[in-house]
């Protein structure tokens, strides 16, 4: 049951009801299983990456520090939505309080804004490492890294706090049934009995400015990187540089392509793209990058791959000794 479909009073609803994936209720069990598997991989993979970087003194370079923060953000992003989605799909527990709904919305938007900033910082790190290797340690000092991390966080807070505030202060006097599997901004804004367009436009413009500017700078960084790489005389040096950047470019494609597709489909394709496709796209955009990021980095970055394999062998050896 979805609960009472309408609330005709002018009071703010104490509870919202999340539908899940409209039209795919019969597939909710399979979605719950799939999300549980992906969430488990995301938690284990990102925790492993963070642990390896934290305890290995040879992995204290800026690139690995940014990767450690990225893994933490991925855990926050997935944890903001997946447990509740699994609860909806598996047991039908689709109620969420007013405060919890907007807290979830805030963490989702803030985490996505921080993640795109981290991807830009990582692209800058690769630019300095490949294009200005002799000045790498002088440019990317610990103070600069902390400053970049603080700036990324402040930018996310400045842009995303007004968005959640604007929607939470709109009057809700109609239905309290959210046609989504989490408190997605536009899906919640549609329930207000005031014009939601200002907050929706703010969300679209804000995300376009943040992501658009980051993508431009990332593209410029990799354009310069590729120029330097293909100017190297050694084929081995070219392959090594491309391999180092390959994981970053893969993660960026994994993050930006479905993310922007989700945002613009909700705006431009809402009358042509079925609602269940829009919801699934938004759900997977938050879960898939968090799941695949540690796998991509683990496969592409030799130091992390070797350390992860060593840790796994040590654990298996310890368990076999305990069992015997």
Automatic annotation (TrEMBL):
Q: Where in the cell is it found?
A: Cell membrane; Membrane
Coiled coil where?
none
- Which keywords label this protein? Cell membrane, G-protein coupled receptor, Membrane, Olfaction, Receptor, Sensory transduction, Transducer, Transmembrane, Transmembrane helix
Q: Chief location of this protein?
A: membrane
May I have one GO cellular component term? plasma membrane
Record InterPro entries: GPCR_Rhodpsn (IPR000276), GPCR_Rhodpsn_7TM (IPR017452), Olfact_rcpt (IPR000725), OR51/52/56-like (IPR050402)
Span-the-membrane segments of this chain are 29-55, 64-86, 106-124, 144-167, 201-225, 277-299
Bilayer disposition of the protein: Multi-pass membrane protein
UniProt GO MF annotations? G protein-coupled receptor activity; olfactory receptor activity
A Pfam family cross-referenced in the UniProt record is 7tm_4
Record's superkingdom? Eukaryota
Where in this chain does the record put each G-protein coupled receptors family 1 profile domain? 45-297
Function, as annotated, reads:
Putative odorant or sperm cell receptor.
Q: What family does the entry list? A: Belongs to the G-protein coupled receptor 1 family.
This chain belongs to the protein called: Olfactory receptor
**What organism does this protein naturally occur in?**
Equus asinus (Donkey)
Gene name tied to this protein: LOC106831636
């Amino acid at each position: 049951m979805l609960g009472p479909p309408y609330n005709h009073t002018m009071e703010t609803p104490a509870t919202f009801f999340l539908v899940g994936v409209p039209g795919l209720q019969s597939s909710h069990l399979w979605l719950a299983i799939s999300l549980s598997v992906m969430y488990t991989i995301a938690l284990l993979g990102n925790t492993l990456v963070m642990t390896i970087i934290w305890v290995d003194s040879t992995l204290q370079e800026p690139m690995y520090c940014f990767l450690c923060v990225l893994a933490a953000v991925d855990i926050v992003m997935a944890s903001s939505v997946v447990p509740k989605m699994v609860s909806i799909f598996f047991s039908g527990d689709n109620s969420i309080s007013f405060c919890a709904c907007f807290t979830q919305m805030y963490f989702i938007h803030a985490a996505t804004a921080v993640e795109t900033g981290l991807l830009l910082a990582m692209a800058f790190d690769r630019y300095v490492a490949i294009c200005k290797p002799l000045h790498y340690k002088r440019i990317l000092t610990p103070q600069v890294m902390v400053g970049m991390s603080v700036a990324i966080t402040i930018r996310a807070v400045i842009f995303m706090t007004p968005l959640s505030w604007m929607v939470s202060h709109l009057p809700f006097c109609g239905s309290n049934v959210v046609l989504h599997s989490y408190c997605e901004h536009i899906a919640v804004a549609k329930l207000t009995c005031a014009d939601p367009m200002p907050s929706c436009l703010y969300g679209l413009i804000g995300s376009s400015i943040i992501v658009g500017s980051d993508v431009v700078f990332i593209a410029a960084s990799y354009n310069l990187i590729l120029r330097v790489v293909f100017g190297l005389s050694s084929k081995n040096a070219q392959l090594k540089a491309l391999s180092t950047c390959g994981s970053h470019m893969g993660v960026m494609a994994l993050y930006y392509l479905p993310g922007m597709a989700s945002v613009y489909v909700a705006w431009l394709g809402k009358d042509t793209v079925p609602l269940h496709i829009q919801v699934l796209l938004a759900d997977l955009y938050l879960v898939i990058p968090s799941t695949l990021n540690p796998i991509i980095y683990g496969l592409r970055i030799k130091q992390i791959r070797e350390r992860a394999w060593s840790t796994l062998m040590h654990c298996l050896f310890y368990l076999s000794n305990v069992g015997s």
